[in-house]
Design brief:
By secondary structure, the protein is α/β, with parallel strands linked by helices. It folds into three domains: 225 residues, Spore Coat Polysaccharide Biosynthesis Protein SpsA, Chain A; 40 residues; 49 residues, no CATH class. The protein contains eleven helices and 13 strands. It is globular, with a radius of gyration of 19 Å. The two termini are 36 Å apart.
Length: 340
C-alpha cells in the first residue's frame, strides 16, 4: 500500500466531515491508499454521524482520550502504507495535494518528513508551517517577544524561520503535526510519537529525532492546505501552561547542563507571566457568517486560493456532499459550524 492517512479527532465532527470529503477527493486516482480516523472518546456523536457517510474510512473508537501521541501510535500500528500522513481533523486539502507531496517524497533523496504551507480560516499564512529548532537562544527570542517584534530577522525570528520566504520550498527542521508526511522506513529508525507528550511538542520531538538520524525535513510551498487552527483548544491560561510545559518537557528530554536548567527555570517563570495575562474563559462563539463557498461551485483548491485574497467577509466552507459548513474567521477564536 502506498499511503496511510491518520487523523486523530476529538469533538470536531463537522470540521472532520469537511476534511474527509476533501481528503477522499484528493486521493482519487492514487492507488493503494487508506484513511484511519482515531476518535479520542468524543461526546458529540462524531462516529455515529460520520461512519455511514464514509464507509471506506476505518474508525478506531477509543473509550478514553488517549492524547495526540498515543492515539496516532494506535493507528500507526494498523497502518499499511509506505508513507504516512499525520493530519489534523480541522484541515481541508486541495485536489492535487497528495500528487504533489508523494512526488516530492519519492524524488527527494535523504528526506525525513515533509510539511506544507498552511493558512487559517481567514487565509492568513500560519507561521508554524515551518519552524527552527528551539535552542536556548531561539526559545528566549520566542518567549521574550523578540520574534514577534522582528518577524523577518534571521537572528531573532528563527523559531518561525521568518527570514525565509513562505512561497519557496526549503529544508525546515521542525514540522507541524497538523500535516506531516513521513515514510514508514524513517519511522522504523526513529520510532513513532513519544507518548510522554500528551498534547503539544510531540511534533517537535519527532521532527528533532528524524533529523538526529541523519535525515532532512522539508517545507513544501507548492501546495497549500486550510487549517482551521485550534478548534478543540482555547488559548487561555490552561493552554499556555500545557504548551510551554510541553516545551520544557522537550528541553529536559534532549538538552542538559547548567545553562539548560537555568533556561528551564526562566521558561517556567515566563509561563506563569503569560498565563496571568491570558483569559480564563473561552472566546465567544460567533454564529454569524457572510458567505459560504461550496465545493460544488469551486474546487477545494480554488476555495483555499480565494480565502487568501482579503475581502473582509467571514467565510464558511461546504463540501457539496456534506451536511454542514464550517469556518474560522480568527485563528484565536472559535470556529463556526452550521448544519445545512
Amino acid at each position: 500500500m502506498v499511503l496511510s492517512v491518520i487523523i486523530v479527532s476529538y469533538q470536531v465532527k463537522y470540521f472532520l466531515e469537511q476534511c474527509l470529503f476533501s481528503a477522499e477527493k484528493a486521493l482519487q486516482g492514487i492507488p493503494g491508499t487508506e484513511i484511519i480516523v482515531v476518535d479520542n472518546h468524543s461526546q458529540d456523536g462524531s462516529v455515529e454521524y460520520l461512519q455511514p457517510k464514509f464507509p471506506a474510512v476505518k474508525f478506531l473508537v477509543q473509550t478514553e482520550n488517549l492524547g495526540f501521541s498515543r492515539a496516532n501510535n494506535r493507528a500507526l500500528d494498523q497502518a499499511k502504507g509506505k508513507y504516512i500522513l499525520f493530519l489534523n481533523p480541522d484541515t481541508i486539502l486541495p485536489e492535487d495535494f497528495f500528487a504533489i507531496c508523494l512526488s516530492f517524497m519519492d524524488k527527494t533523496p535523504g528526506i525525513g518528513a515533509a510539511g506544507v504551507r498552511m493558512v487559517d480560516g481567514s487565509g492568513r499564512f500560519l507561521k508554524e508551517s515551518r519552524r527552527g529548532f528551539p535552542t536556548p537562544w531561539v526559545a528566549f527570542c520566542k518567549l521574550s517577544g523578540l520574534t514577534a517584534l522582528f518577524p523577518h530577522s534571521r537572528l531573532l525570528a528563527h523559531y518561525y524561520m521568518g527570514h525565509l520566504p513562505e512561497d519557496q520550498t526549503h529544508p525546515a527542521p521542525i514540522l507541524s503535526g497538523a500535516c506531516m508526511f513521513v515514510s514508514r522506513k524513517v519511522l522504523d529508525k526513529t520510532g513513532a510519537f513519544d507518548e510522554r507528550f500528551f498534547m503539544y511538542a510531540e511534533d517537535i520531538d519527532l521532527s528533532y529525532r528524524i533529523e538526529q538520524k541523519g535525515f532532512t525535513n522539508y517545507y513544501i510551498a507548492d501546495t497549500t492546505i486550510l487549517h482551521f487552527k485550534g478548534e478543540s483548544t482555547h488559548k487561555d491560561a490552561r493552554y499556555v501552561k500545557l504548551f510551554y510545559g510541553a516545551m520544557i518537557q522537550f528541553r529536559r528530554k534532549h538538552f542538559s547542563g547548567v545553562f539548560s536548567r537555568v533556561l528551564n527555570g526562566l521558561l517556567a517563570i515566563a509561563i506563569r507571566i503569560r498565563a496571568s495575562f491570558s483569559s480564563s474563559s473561552p472566546p465567544a462563539v460567533s454564529s454569524g457568517y457572510d458567505i459560504i463557498l461550496s465545493e460544488s461551485d469551486s474546487s477545494f483548491k480554488e476555495i483555499i486560493k480565494l480565502l487568501q485574497y482579503p475581502h473582509g467577509k467571514r467565510t464558511l466552507i461546504h463540501a457539496s456532499a456534506s451536511g454542514s459548513a464550517v469556518g474560522s474567521p480568527s485563528a484565536k477564536g472559535r470556529g463556526i459550524t452550521i448544519v445545512m
